[in-house]
Amino acid sequence: MQIHIFDDKLAMGAAAAERVAAELNTAIATRGEATLILATGASQFEMLASLVKQDVDWALVTGFHLDEYLGLPETHPASFRRYLKERFVNVVPNLQRFHFVDGEAPDPTVECQRLGALIRDRVVDVACIGIGENGHLAFNDPPADFGTEEPYIVVELDEACRRQQLGEGWFPTLEAVPERAISMSIRQLMKSRAIVCTVPDARKATAVRGAVEGPVTNALPASVLQTHAKCDMYMDWAAARLLDPARLGSQV
User: How do residues 160-187 score in pLDDT, each as one tens digit?
Assistant: First the structure.
């Protein structure tokens, strides 16, 4: 795991986006196409704003959606489909295709199977993710399922996760936050050749410390990133404030 710390979110997001673009362009040069996974939420604002400006042949890129609430219409301000369309899919030119998670599908299990069939045998070149305040990856709240081989699963959202969504302003009340979602699984996410994790803000500092310095445990799902061969974590100093200065080296 490589740690990159920045003085402000704009610089953080730009550096992360440049890394994502480099991975996509390497894949395109090597195989003639590329696949990426995109997350949503406040942690991805600056990264996505910079990513859409990168020099990438988007006509050769296929995207996958990381997670989505169950039962939430796309018109809702918190819809991740809406988020990704407004900030990425409808902005980049000539995107080859993007596979959304349909949180309104009549049968969520069937929707998981549909998405699984699309991604199971694909080479995913780069996954753009964040870390939740409770240490989750995607919507894999603790204790996360580290064992399932299914690419997408139906999950229950814990209270800490739901309170984060409320705190970020996506919902008016805790009761309005959905209790279930479809999420990419931990094992599917970890199959990505490269992972670019963008995680700003002081409220994420405890989760960042656990992810970087704690034991690998499903009680803090993001800790599994320690086992990935090519994971880069981009953060601001607020998110990094609890990390051991000795491990940060020249960044301190």
Answer: 888 888 988 888 999 999 899 999 999 9
In Å, how far are 75, 142, 217, 218, 225 from 145, measured between CA atoms? 30, 8, 10, 7, 14
The per-residue pLDDT for range 59-86, each reduced to its tens digit, is 999 999 999 999 999 999 999 999 999 9
pTM above 0.85, yes or no: yes
> What gap in Å lies between CA 124 and CA 235, rounded to an integer?
23
* Topology given in CATH for the domain delimited by 2-242: Rossmann fold (3.40.50)
For the chain, give every domain's residue range: 2-242
- In terms of C-beta density within 10 A (0-12 exposed, 13-18 middle, 19 or more buried), how is residue 126 classed? buried
Q: In which residue are the tokens 């045998």 written?
A: 121
